[in-house]
Specification:
Layout (H helix, E strand, L loop, with lengths): L4 E7 L7 H8 L5 E4 L8 E5 L2 E5 L12 E4 L4 E2 L1 H13 L8 E4 L3 E2 L2 H14 L11 H9 L13 H18 L8 H15 L3 E3 L1 H10 L3 E5 L24 H7 L6 E9 L2 E3 L12 H9 L12 E3 L1 E2 H11 L3 E5 L9 E9 L5 E2 L10 E8 L16 H14 L3 E5 L7 E3 L2
Parallel strand pairs: 1-10, 1-11, 2-5, 2-10, 5-7, 6-8, 7-9, 11-15, 14-16, 15-19
Antiparallel strand pairs: 3-4, 12-13, 16-17, 16-18, 19-20
């Protein structure tokens, strides 16, 4: 019997690597694009034909005609935010109702989850994680403690279930002494409108849809949100998200057997960024860091927050490649480095006791990066159309990365537009 194939595409750093654009570029090869984890705290920005789109919950394959897009069971969904996102896309001429399926087992982010998110963050004081306040963490907490409200519940006694969960949350907030409910009634009203809007879509048992698709010999691309270093198990805990962002999350977030996974495409930037709190060994606090931020337009697609910027960290990347089983690398934003005289890459860490190491330790808070320097290519790469046009200095940089990471770089992005993507032969 002919069987299809599942490939996984995910970020290898702290998120914001440019996954949305790459999914959009790769989608023509696949029949189905599926999101397997995360929520509306992750924004994927795509630019083509002079338009800019930010996707939060909807898979990035939605722009390719005739493709089925699935929001998987591992995703947490906010009905009001989903409705706004979907309506914006529909208004721009992209038909959604036929293309987008939603897993019945995906959990719903309730309005009270957002208040809990804020209350928990305030309670942490100076140890705050830097959450986006979208209610992601409390929703995954409810899921894990077997108290969740799911998309499938919309079809059966939904109001009774909703009120029961809401009451439990309000009692929890009362016990914490929380009194700030400003705007809650309006949020709840829009949330309920979002629930009604969601009824226009097909709610499916996505694990069956995915596996029937494979048995029919078709191809699926699984799209992750955030990045490997935000994984709940393998990231820089506790400054992480609440789900498994690594490739194994595609199995649990969609109902796919591990033996069905083919290629794992790992996306990285030619430098590194991070949003929110937490360790970041190669972070720059100087003019170079500001220059990376400005040239790379490093501001969050959802929050607008300025991202922390630094040089590429090859120790961290090698770790991410290992835990994901990456088969091919995709390097984004190479053009941001076009004007630098010198480019650095972290090739080791120095511990507080002076010991040098070349593996990611349990705690990366106090490590100092050991850098290797490269001569900049000082070339505007945004207009290049083929890898044969790459300057020698850039080729030297890419060659070193491939050798150090022991993984091929198959795709190089040299600008935000769909066309500014070079597939290496």
């Amino acid at each position: 019997m002919e069987t299809g194939k599942v490939d996984v595409l995910l970020g290898l750093q702290w998120g914001d690597e440019g996954k949305g654009k790459v999914v959009d570029v790769l989608t023509p090869r696949y029949d189905v694009v599926a999101r397997f984890q995360g929520g509306p705290n992750a924004g994927h920005t795509l630019e083509f034909e002079g338009q800019k789109y930010v996707l939060r919950s909807i898979p990035s394959g939605i722009f390719q005609g005739g493709k089925i897009n699935i929001i998987g069971n591992g995703v947490v969904l906010a009905p009001d935010l989903f409705m706004n996102e979907a309506k914006d896309l529909a208004a721009s001429g992209h038909p959604l109702f036929e293309r987008l399926y939603i897993s019945k087992k995906a959990h719903l982010i309730m309005p009270t989850h957002r208040i809990l998110d804020k209350a928990y963050e305030v309670a942490k004081g100076k140890d705050l994680v830097g959450t986006t306040g979208k209610g992601i963490g409390p929703t995954y907490t409810d899921k894990t403690s077997r108290n969740g409200l799911r998309v499938g519940d919309i079809l059966h006694d939904f109001e009774i279930k909703y009120l029961k969960h809401k009451e439990r949350h309000l009692n929890l907030l009362k016990s914490m002494g929380w009194t700030d409910f400003e705007g809650f009634e309006e949020t709840e009203k829009q949330w309920m409108e979002g629930v009604e809007y969601m009824r226009n879509f097909r709610f499916v048992d996505s694990e069956h849809v995915i596996n029937h698709t494979l048995r029919a010999g078709k191809f699926i691309l699984c799209e992750g949100a955030q990045g490997t270093m935000l994984d709940i198990d393998f990231g820089s805990y506790p400054f992480v998200t609440s789900s498994n962002t690594i490739s194994a999350g595609a199995c649990t977030g969609l109902g796919i057997g591990p033996n069905k996974i083919g290629n794992v495409f790992g996306i990285m930037k030619a430098y590194c960024t991070r949003v929110g709190s937490g360790p970041f060994p190669t972070e720059l606090f100087d003019k170079t860091g500001d220059k990376l931020c400005d040239l790379g337009h490093e501001y969050g697609a959802v929050t607008g927050r300025k991202r922390r910027c630094g040089w590429i960290d090859l120790i961290q990347l090698r770790y991410s490649i290992m835990v994901n089983g990456v088969t091919e690398l995709i390097m984004m934003k190479s053009d941001v480095l076009d004007t630098f005289d010198t480019i650095k890459a972290c090739v080791g860490y120095e511990l507080p006791n002076g010991e040098a190491i070349d593996e990611l330790p349990y705690d990366i808070n106090d490590v100092k990066p050991i850098y290797k320097e490269f001569k900049g290519w000082k070339t505007d790469m945004t207009r290049l159309t083929d890898e044969t046009q790459f300057p020698k200095e850039f080729n030297d940089y890419v060659k070193f990365l491939e050798e150090f990471l022991e993984t091929r770089i198959g795709v190089i992005s040299i600008g935000p537009d769909r066309e500014q993507t070079i597939i290496r032969k």
